[in-house]
Structures are given as C-alpha cells and as structure tokens.
Specification:
Blueprint (H helix, E strand, L loop, with lengths): L11 H20 L2 H18 L8 H31 L9 H18 L4 H11 L5 H8 L3 H18 L1
Helix pairs in contact: 1-2, 1-3, 2-3, 5-6, 5-7, 6-7
Length: 167
C-alpha cells in the first residue's frame, strides 16, 4: 500500500520555494550580512535534505526557524573556534606557525572534534582536549580540573568512546 505524497508545502522543495526568501530575511536580521544569511539559509535546506524524513509540517516557518537556529548556533560555534585557533596561532613563534594548508587541515580537524564531542559535559570535553591537544598527563589534568584521577580516566574513556563510535 503506497502513501500519498506529502503536501508540497511540507516537502523540502515546497518549503524552499515557499519560504526561502522569508528565511533569508529572518537570518539577515540576526546576522546583518545578506551573504552570510543566504549561505545559512542554504545550509538550513541542505540539513533538511540530508535528514531525508518527510514530516507533516503544520507551521513551516516555525519549523524552519527551529532548524535555522541550530544552523546559526553551529555558525557561531565555528566562528568562536576559528577565533580561538587564530589567537592561539598568534602566540606561536614565527618559525612554528603552520603553513596555510596545515592551518586549514588543523582547523577542519578541530571542527570535526567539536562536532564529535558535542553533547558531552564541558568537563569531559576539557579533559579530552587537555590530554589530546595539550598533551597533559592524567595527573596534570586532575590537578588542573580539580577532579580525581579516576574521574579523569572516566571522562577520557567517555570522550574516546564518543569519537570511536561516531566514526
């Protein structure tokens, strides 16, 4: 038995045709940049396409707003991560600054790590980054975070499992 196709307004194509301009305007009011707004509107629809689930959507603008807020949040997180990375690069001696190609690879790796660790408690992420990025020992992490050695081990195991099963 086949199901009738969803109404055009709830398909991604229908949402795009009916609400793309509205969503772009909504994002532009938040970002102040028409180019970034257009990019994030496209990212919102790409996210819907990658979801591949058809939903009966009663309030398309509320639905799009919810998805766009997540896209916007990720955009701001990426900007914060990039800013922190470039500030860290400025602290390096000139001879240790990586090439543009290596910077791009490192930044993409940081973005992927951020995505993989998303949803973990802050202290778990911090412990993982202190071990993996800063190269601190378990004892040093415990001292820096003010937690026991057993908690450091639990945190690192939890973060490692998240990364392992995400691949």
């Amino acid at each position: 038995m086949s199901h009738p196709p969803p109404p055009a307004s709830s398909s991604v194509e229908g949402l795009y045709l009916d609400h793309r301009n509205w969503l772009t305007g909504w994002l532009q009011r938040r970002l102040g940049c028409p180019h970034s707004a257009a990019d994030l509107a496209q990212d919102t629809f790409v996210r819907l396409l990658s979801n591949r689930q058809e939903h009966a959507i009663n309030e398309p603008r509320a639905f799009l707003t919810t998805v766009a807020k997540r896209v916007l949040f990720n955009h701001y997180r990426r900007q914060d991560l990039e800013r922190a990375y470039y500030q860290a690069l400025q602290q390096l001696p000139e001879q240790e600054v990586p090439s543009e190609e290596h910077r791009a690879i490192i930044l993409e790796t940081l973005m992927e790590l951020d995505r993989l660790l998303d949803g973990l408690p802050g202290q778990v992420k911090r412990a993982f980054l202190l071990a993996q990025v800063d190269g601190l020992s378990y004892g040093e992490i415990a001292a820096q975070l003010g937690i026991s050695l057993a908690t450091v081990k639990r945190h690192l195991h939890k973060a490692a499992m998240r990364c392992y099963f995400a691949l």
